[in-house]
Amino acid sequence: MKCVKPLLLASVLATTASVQANDLNQVIDKSNAINESAQKTQTKINSISDSMQSRLQTFKTLNKEIDGLAVYNAQLDKQIKNQLDEMSAINASMDQVSVIERQITPLMLRMITGLEQFVALDVPFLSQERATRVETLKNMMERADVTSSEKFRRVVEAYQVEVDYGRTIEAYTSLLDVDGQEREVDFLRIGRLELLYVTKDGSHAGSWNQAAQKFVAVDDTAISQINKGLRIARKQLAPDMLTLPVHASK
């Protein structure tokens, strides 16, 4: 009986050790399972965090785009408003076009008549050329294939030509009745201040007298000055002082 107790004690100890080992294994397994679950949970958390960061960045980007679109739309609204205002102004102008055209035609006719009278009363230089210009304008006014704007442009252009005559010097050749005989002469026009002529042989020269409405003879001493003026007008001589007879205006 004395030898039975040690064996029983050893058996109890072995059983206890086995139970403890099983419990420890279970604890370890549970700990590993918890760790694996924690790792999986952390992985999910990291994935959710990354997704949230990406969505937050996308949200910020979209907000910036929305702000930009708001500014762009506001600018477009201003442009559209301006365009609508311009369209309204254009429509109003178009409504008045027919009225303006009816008014501009009588104005042009009066301008042409005034130009014709002016040429007739002016110093008689380039008489045929200027009369032809007026006649061309009168014929143009009857044409339907020329727009009103083009007609007005040509009338104004004719006026500008007449204005330019008053501040230029010119030499040209034409026929003139000299002492009852038609002769070829050189004319010298100095603005509208003076119109002179000299025959080709230099034997006769004259100056236009606006008050008398005719050419009057000038002294032979003026012929050299007229020839000098002709050369200056033809750019054959540098500009220089001229001594010429001038008929004072009344």
UniProtKB/TrEMBL annotation:
Keywords: Signal. GO terms for cellular component: membrane. Residues 1-21 form the signal peptide. InterPro entries: SNARE, UCP028069. One of its GO terms (biological process) is vesicle-mediated transport. It holds the Pfam family DUF3450. This is DUF3450 domain-containing protein.
